[in-house]
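Dear colleague,

Thank you for sharing your sequence with our group. We've completed the structure prediction you requested, and as agreed, I am returning the results in plain text so they can be pasted directly into your records. Please verify that the sequence below matches your submission; if there's any discrepancy, let me know and we will rerun it promptly.
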Amino acid sequence: MEDRIDPRIGQPFVSKNAAVASPNNLATVAGNRIMQQGGNAIDAMVAVNATLGVVFPHMTGAGGDAFWLIYDAKTQRQYVLNASGRSVNHVDIERYQRQGFIDNRGVKAAITVPGAVDGWYEAHKRFGKLSFAECLAPAIEYARDGFPVSASLAQFSDEKLNVLRKYESTSKVFLKDQVSPYLEGEIFHNHDLANTLEAIAEKGSKAFYQGDIADKIVNHMEKENGDMTRDDLRKQQSQWEDPLFINYNGKTVSSLPPNSDGMATLQILGMLDHIDNEELDKSTEDFINWFTRATILAFEDRNAYLTDPAFKDVPTDKLLDDEYISELAKRLHAESKKRAPEEEINADGDTTFSCAADAEGNVVGVVQSLYWEWGSGVVPEGTGFLLQNRGAFFSLDEDSPNKLEGNKRPGHTLTCAMVEGNDGPELIIGAMGGDGQPQTQATLIRRVIVEKRNIQEAIDQPRWLLGRTWGEKQNGLRLEGRFDQSLIQKLENLGHTHVTLIDSYSDLVGHAQGIQIFKDRFEAGADPRSNGLALGY
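Please find the predicted structure tokens below.
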């Protein structure tokens, strides 16, 4: 892939009344349009995420999961909406045990109920301002009238032709004549998805989980020997939860509770807060070394504890306690050169993150995903959307807290974060990219809060990734090509292995978006590594 350098590098979008950012320009325009029509940040996020399912269907959609992090100006409180789906009640665990793995494509990968649509509906019902139908109107228009294919959609269509060609119901929607990928700039229509979204706009989430759409999903499952039933869909219900918090550099940082791994972001920041800035900033290699080793300690806890809290307690109070974080920081110092952290990272997946803030003081971040690109690869006949393969993140290890069980939410890499000061929210931030999400979020929070960079500059600066992403098998420490080649040897001297340079603006390190909130303005940023856009008015 060629490096992409955006002329907006380092320049946030500055606006007075509202701001919105997403990884796709058309989705951002949809959200901005809703707020200009009098909608609030929650309305905008419904519009953005519904639109992303139309114009960014390889990464997200109605068949996926979502988490919402909302600051409500009226109550001056933060809320989390967990819109992730549970596994089907009668999941065929013995089948997966016999074959030794959980399918990542096909109907046998579609073993968790999609939660995103219920998330749109529940968030809007509690905090929305415009009608639900008004919020879905831009997505319906793009699906019905067509939209120009983005570089990202064209790229992933071409790279995953084997996935798109495997099932007739999928190839009919996403390939020209069921054979060829759409090229960048070509106009793409999805009439089935337009019909689906119109039904949801008219009847709410019941249309998806109990009505004609549910019938289409289940009929397809029965035809292809899948496991999802009408009862599984009918039982889906999003949950309102409290966020997790940690103090960092005099600010309060919040993130999502389990079954999200938001605690990893907070633990990384907590450990770094115990290291003098002079020590952290002594050199680029020292900074990355400290950061990646804090990441592995956080991921050790993530792997040991992360699960659906309905099945097993996740001791987040202990894991984020000041005394425990201090002990982790001591381990970080003691183990700083004793082992290669690249050997122990083991999660993957990708995501979309979008965010919005409005003049009323509402601030919202949403992560929404199909898990792998194109999810399960399965489009239920007549619906126009893909079902996720999030169930592939479950473990078959009986000792794993994330082991596959019926009616259980899997552990999620989906996460985002908010920073609050004395006067309320100052930053909403998130990024796609599996294990890269907490790493990127913690990095960007530090760049904004400690280094005093603006949000766009923080996003644009070169990043790294420890671990895997997008279904890769190799662990390693990848550095964007704007880092000097000599940094590889310097990091190897500090004990790192598998250190490589990748493209200067690489998809592998994720697509980040964020908004800084000031008393008199908003500054929004979107990642030049995607077709993203930050706007406002």
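Summary note from our side: The longest helix spans residues 284-305.

Kind regards,
the structure core
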